[in-house]
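To whoever picks this up:

The nightly regression suite flagged DNA-binding transcriptional regulator FabR as changed. Nothing in the input moved, so I suspect the structure step. Input below, exactly as stored in the fixture:
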Amino acid sequence: MGIRAEQKEKTRRTLIEAAFSQLSAERSFSSLSLREVAREAGLAPTSFYRHFKDMEELGLTLVDEGGLTLRQLMRQARQRIADGGSVIQISIKTFMEFIERSPDVFRLLLRERSGTSAAFRQAVAREIQHFTAELTDYLEEKQQTSRSYAEMQAQAMVTIVFSAGAEALDMNESERAALAERMTLQLRIIAKGADAYNKAKRL
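Regenerated output under the current build:
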């Protein structure tokens, strides 16, 4: 990559980080203006268009990055599992750490999942599908089960995790700990139920 291309990518990254930095419990992406993002990034508004067609394109990029960040963390969790440890406990711990460290990234995914923009809803749906597919791959390999059963189990787990994540955003530390325990039990029930069902199908 040449110096000019590197500088362009650096400026683009600055705009992305500027947009993320302005998200909060009180401010959604839809409330941000192009001028606000450009000002936060230290750029003239006209410079914005050298990197993004419009605010929607920037927002879709944020959704993609938020989903990728979560998937990367869960991949790291699976590596920690490979080194020894409870699959469910390590996965939940990793997810809750993500909520604690990047609450506004998760808020973005939650808000746009049911927002007014069809493009945003589709983008979040794709990220959830990617997340579910990776979990399905893992369950299919580890449990030696069919793809369809692994996918149904993954879908149930992801639904519970995302729902709990929404609750966790407004909880204190002790409440999040109690929520993590409840999630652990719920996911174990799903896992044990799936295992029993698979065994019964083989008989």
